[in-house]
Amino acid sequence: MSVGTPRGLASSGQKPIAEILHPLSAAEEPLSVTVNLGGDKTTRVEFDLPEYCVRRRYQDFDWLRIKLEDSQPTHLIPPLPEKFVMKGVVDRFSEEFVETRMKALDKFLKRIADHPVLSFNPHLNAFLTAKDLNKRQVLALLTKVGESVKHVAGGYKLRARPAEFCAMGEYLDTFTQKLGTIDRIAQRILKEQSEYLTELREYGTVYSSWVGLEEELRRPLEGVAGCVTTCCAALEDLGENMSQDFLPVLREYVLYVESMKNVLRKRDQSQAEYEARLEAAILRKQEDRTPMPVEVEKCQDKVECFNADLKADWERWQSNKRQDFKQLLTGMADKNINHYEKCQVAWESLITLLQDKQTEDKTSETN
Amino acid sequence: MAEDGRDESVATDDESDNTAADGSNSLNNTMVEEGSTLVRRMEICVAEAEKRSGKNAVNMQETFTVYLIETRPMDAVAEGRNPAPDSLWRRYSEFELLRNYLLVTYPYIVAEFVWHKLSADNMDPDFVERRRIGLENFLLRVASHPVLSNDKILHHFLTEEHGWKEVVYETGFQAKAMLTHILVFTKLDQLPMLLFQADSRIRALSATFRVRNPDKRFMEMKHYSDELQSHTSQLLRARARVADRLYGVYKVHGNYGRVFSEWSAIEKEMGDGLQSAGHHMDAYAASIDDILEEEEHYADQLKEYLFYAEALRKHELTQFEFEMASQDLISKKQQHEELTTGIVRTFSFKGMTNKLFGQEAPVQREARIKLLEELIAEGEDSVKEKRVECKEHVERAWVDMQRFKEQKDKDLREALINYAVMQISMCKKGIQMWSNAKECFLKM
C-alpha cells in the first residue's frame, strides 16, 4: 500500500461531507442518527446520487471504524465515544446524553472525511450511501476474517524504537496524564459549583421571606432575591455547558491518544517483523548466498510506508489537537464570561431601581 | 492634641451645653428637630488605627489598638475652608464605656447601641479595619440622634483626650446601672454575651421572666424585633455558607494554573499561551480573598440588627417591675385585712398556723398592722411611680422605635446597594480574568 496523494474532499472542489442531522427521538430504540450527504455529482465520482440520507446505529459506526483500522492500518483512525455505558449511571435516552453522543459521532465522521486518505476509503462510501448496511456487514464479516489473518504479526519483539517515535510515545503518555488531571479538576469544579448553587438558592429564599415583614424595604429585598435567582439560573447554564461540551471533548481526546498509541505499537510490530526477517535472511545469505527474498523487501516497504504515514498523521493530529483545544478552552472562557455578564446585568438593574427610590426620597424630604 | 479643641469644634450653640445628661430631662429633647443634631454641626470620623503598648491595670505590658477620632466644624467645611481637623486617640474600651454610659442614662432609647463586640484577633489588620468602621458608624449614629447628640459626655469624648474617664465615672451612672438591671443573654449561641462593664455589683436577671399584662404597642414592637432578628440571623448564616462554597469554587480553579503550566512544558506552539493562561487562572483563584473580605463589611452591617431585640428587653423589665410592685402591694393589703378583720380570703401558712396554734399577742398584732400600713402607703406610691414610669417608657420607646425604623430602612437600603455594588465588582473582576485567559488561549 502506498501513500495516496492527499486529496481532501474540500481541496478537490467538492463539498465536504455535510453535518449529521438530528437523531431520532430518544424514545426510539436503538439510537440512530441520520447521515445527510449532499454533493455535486459531477465532481465526486464514487457517489452515484447527488444526495443520500441514511440511518445509522452506533454499531454501524463501530463497524466503519473496524473496517478502517483493518484496511488502513498505518493510519490513525479517530476514536468513537465509549461503546458501553453503564445502565443506571447515565440515562441512555436522556436528551443530554443523546446530544453529547451525537456530537462525538459527528466529529468522528468529520475527521475521517477531512483525512486525505481515509476519506476515499470504500468502506466510508458504503457507510455513507448504503440503504441497508447489514447486508454489507455480513459480507464484510467474511472478508474481515481473511484480512485479519494477514495482519497477525507473530509477536515479534522490537529492539529499539527510533527516537522520533519514542518522543511521540512520551508525549502521548504525558499528554494523557494532563488530560486526566484536567478532567478531574473540571469535575471538581462542577461539584463545588453545584454545592454553591444549592446554598445560593437558599440564600435567595431568605431575602424573599423577609419581604413580608417590611414595607419600605419590600422592593429592595424582592430585587435582591430576584438577582440571586438570576445568578442561580446563569450558574446552572454554566454547569450544563461544562458537562455537556467540555468534559466529553476531553474524554474523547483520551481515546484519541489511545488510538494513536495503538498505531505506534502496530508500527513497532511491523518494524520488528521486518528486522526479524532481515536478520534471518542475512543469516541464510551468509550460509548459501541466496538473494534477498521478496518478502523482506516487501516488509521494508511496509515499514517505510508506515513510518511516513504515521509521521504525516502525527503532524495532522497535532495540528488538529491544537485547533480543538484552542476552541475548547476559549469556549470555556466564553461560557464563564457569559455567566458573569448575565449576573452583572441583573445587579446593575437593581442598583438603578434602588437608587431611583433614594433620590425620590431625598427630593420628597427637601420639598 | 485636642486640648483646645473643644472651643473650636463643638458648636457655639450654648443651648446644647446646658442640656442635662440625665435622662429625665431628655423627654423635652425628643421634640428637638433634626437640625440641631450634632452630626449636622460637626464632621466626625474615625480616621485611623494604631498599635500602642503600655502597662495595664495590673502593671503588665500589653499591646492594644487606638483609634483616631477627627472632628471638624461643619460650617467651615460647607464654606469651603478646609481647616485641619481636631483629633484625639481613644481605645476600644473607652468606646465601650461611652456606650454603656449612654445605655444607662437613656434607658428608653433602643437603637443606637446595637453593636457587636467582634471577637477576633485584635492585631489582624482586616479585623481592625472592620472595627474602625463599626466604631465610626456608632459615633455617627449617636451624633445623629436628636437626644443623644446633645449629651455632654459625648461631646467630651469627642473633644477632650485626657480626664474623660474620670468625668464619666463622676456621673455616677454605674450606681444607676445597679438599679437598672442588665440582662445577660446567651440565646444566640454564636454571639458573644452582652455583659456590662466588669462590675460585680450589677445584678443580672436571666432572660426568662414573664410579663403579665404587656402594653399592646409594646407587644407589636417586640414581635417586630423578634422577626427582624430572626430574618437577620438567617440571612447571616446563609450568606456565610454561600461565601464558603464560593471560596471553594474559586480556589479549585487554581489547579488549572498548575496543570496548564505542566502541560505547556510538552507543547511547542501551544506552550506560551497555556503558560500565561495558567497564570490568569492562579490570579482568578486568588481574587476571591479580597472579594469575601469586602463582603464581611456587609455582614457587619446586618449583625447590628441582631442586637436590636435585646435592647427592647429593657422595657420589658420596667413592666415587670411594675407588675411585681403591684403584686407586692396586693399581698400586703391582704395581710393587713387579715390582721385587722380576721377574715382570711386566701390560704396562707401564717393564717393556718394562727388558727392551729392561736393568734399572737395584741401588742404584736398592732405593731404589725402599723408596719403594714406604712408599707402599704409606700407600696402605693411605688406602684403609682412605676405605672407612670412604665407608661412613659413605652411612649418614648414607641417614638424612638418609629425613628429607628426609618433609620433602619435607610441604612438597610444603602447596605443592599453596597452589596449590589460588590456583586457587580466581583462580576467585572471575573470577566476581566477570564478575558485575559481567553486571549492567552487564542494565542495557543
Automatic annotation (TrEMBL), chain B:
GO terms for cellular component: early endosome membrane; plasma membrane; SNARE complex. Residues 18-31 have a biased composition (Polar residues). It comes from the Eukaryota. InterPro entries: AH/BAR_dom_sf (IPR027267), PX_dom (IPR001683), PX_dom_sf (IPR036871), PX_SNX4 (IPR034902), SNX4 (IPR034783), SNX4_BAR (IPR037430). Keywords: Protein transport, Transport. GO terms for molecular function: phosphatidylinositol-3-phosphate binding. Residues 45-164 form the PX domain. The keyword Amino-acid biosynthesis does not apply. This is PX domain-containing protein. It comes from Etheostoma spectabile.
